[in-house]
Amino acid sequence: MQKLICAGLALLMLMLSACSSDKLTPAEQGINTQTLLIANGDEPRELDPQLSTGSPEHSIHLALYEGLVSKNSKDLSIEPAVAESWEISDDGRIYTFRIRDNARWSNGDAIKASDYVWSWKRSLLPKFGSEWAYLKYYVKGAEAFHKQKNNNFDEVGIKAVDDKTLVITLNEPCNFFLQLLDHYSFFAVHPATILKHGDIDQAISKWTLPENWVGNGPFSLKKWAINDVIVTEKNPHYWNADNVKLNAVHFYPITDKQAEERAFRSGKVHVTYTPQLAIEKIAWYRENQPEALRIDPVYASYYYEFNLTKAPFNDVRVRKAFAMAIDRKLIVERVTKGGETAAWSFIPTDPGGYQPKQYYNYDIKQARALMAEAGYPDGKGFPPVELLYNTNDNHRKVALAIQQMLNTNLGVQVQLLNQEWKVYLNSRKNLEHDIGRAGWIADYLDASNFIEILASDSGQNHTGWKSDIYDSIIAELKKTTDSQQRFKLFEQANKILADEMPVLPVYNYSDVNLVSPAVHGWHGNVMHYHPYNNVYLEATP
Amino acid sequence: MLSYIVKRVLAAIPVLFLVVLITFILVRIAPGGPFDEERSVPPQVLENLNKRYNLDLPVHEQFFSYVGNLLQGDFGPSFKYPNRSVTEIISTGAPVTIELGLYALIFAMILGCSAGVFAALRPNSWRDYSAMSTAMIGICVPSFVLGPLLVLIFGIYLGWLPVSGWGYSPGDKILPALTLGAAYAAYLARLSRGGMLEVLNQDYIRTARAKGLPEWQVVIKHGLRGGLTPVIAFLGPAAAGLLSGSFVVETIYQIPGIGRFFLQAAFNRDYTMILGTTIFFAFLIILFNLITDILLVWLNPKLRSEVFNQ
Question: pTM for the whole thing?
């Protein structure tokens, strides 16, 4: 009996080891077939560019669709895409785009200017419910149409002059409008395909399933096995197909950070998507596989929101004291350790040239003086407050460090409170927190993207803070195109935020990804923007 | 026997209805809604979204409309994956979860029962102690520890087996089945040991031995039938547990089963998906318990006569 068991075990081991010997990993096979394998975070909710909202969808859209213009992934400069050229009127309000003659949908149909008019109408129809419709409010008449103040789409500033000429008219000149055109909610969709599967304003539709789908990106959707894989293959009708080197891109929905890292390490994927690798893994990769670890600064802010509607944070002195009592440098160097940079202003340094001034720093003495002035000398009499964050190991580590710093430097007791994601969102929305963790990743490269979220009527402002002067700066920014003048307005907003401190900036995010050294043409940038057009795979010696 | 089955099936209907009602109430009480995201949705968009999924109706109307659709076999559209219906998602994921559960159950039965019988044959010997200590470790180590450990050893260090995926190569089903089945194997080992010990001390076993039957015949032919009764009683809940508890293993190994949806639906407040998957698992639990009871009746002459005399 025992001999039998031993023999069985030995046979099993032999079979298992036979499974592996000399077999190429999927990543190695991918190099031979030019198939890029990406661990892509969550299962995408939707592949309709006008309905999608998440980052996992964004990285798939870069394969499946293309806008009128696109960005260079090295320096984020604007490049022609579906539009081969464009002209901007002298007053900066009218954009005339010339669509390429060879721009085609994946079914071979020519892309027409009228496809854009139809697509934008669709995204602005109130019943359709696009969450990005507000981004089109820069276009003349778009807001009125979306808010049903005007039901005539002819009054919206997008017109097809002929099949290849598209004219867009804005309310006011907008410096970053070309950048917005590269946002997927501005992409065109194929009208005939959508109408085949429902009405123009029907959001629940089967058109994005692989058997029905039509797009215009460098790759076409071939398979969408839910929670398993999304397979895209090179689109022969793409205008620049000759220069696309990859034959396919596969997206694996891997939600668990540890599972994602294991998938990378065992050669199942070439690239991990999650911008936040587990902290302890970063150290391992720095030591053992530095060539695979890519750390890039991102145009994004990690901050805490004070609830100004109740004591003690209705007192600006307390808010300022808290902001001065936290050693950000220590947090980024000893806690997060992923290349983040300490933040002393809510608005990060703008890659476009704006450098926010620093109005305060880590100053325990000053912080204590402010607390004493507010009636809490050495923290005496300070009520216990809660620091709310969504359940996540990395957020917990940062919160623990801050809790400790506040206790040591100001003598105050901060309780940590973690909540499951939706409960946390609900608590913030209802202003039930004292201090709440928050983060913001820019949609486009302009500081106004950060400034606007703290406007009095902004849905992202979970502080209860309202400032008329601040709101007027936002209104002024919408009318100003001169860069220097805009920088001045950014700085005024930055100064108000430092003076009134509704939010406490902690650090600017970094993008931590694992990228196989075999992946070429994958450039780090502040927008986590990684198109696949110029990517290719080549084994490293 | 048929009337017994019919009676049990009829009794399941109010149970399922209660499951729907309680789940419906619980998901609505949970803070946060399906459309709450980090980026707040503009109020007019939220209004349209609520209208699209009938969330603008009073709650009782929503419930009755849901139950009405359910009776026609329609679980509704998923809130999180709007272009797929809950029925579609369940029918795609369930076969994978059932397959995984089946492999895990087979593994658990083979390993657990043989270890239990092996231990029971020489009670209080080193064989017994080592088998039962291993079983105790199996019960104590949770799958979220065992899974990554197995991946590290067999997937990364030895490189013998794939670390994730399902159906890409035959080897990718081994580690998930082992991880999911391990705890159940351990339970089964303890149960079968207990059952066998009891049976092996019975008079009829002694008679069989006295008649000079070889030991393997005594154990397999006479001992197992009675000795494995507690194992069979446990199989129903075990099968249901394997299916509904597979989400950890599915997440570790990236398996496109229904378990991941079950869990994610709760996090996403995907109301229709939570209800759909809960009803599905409740149905499976009821079904497996029924099968177990039928098997027990079939195996136990005393129960059989009770059922037939009713």
Answer: 0.88
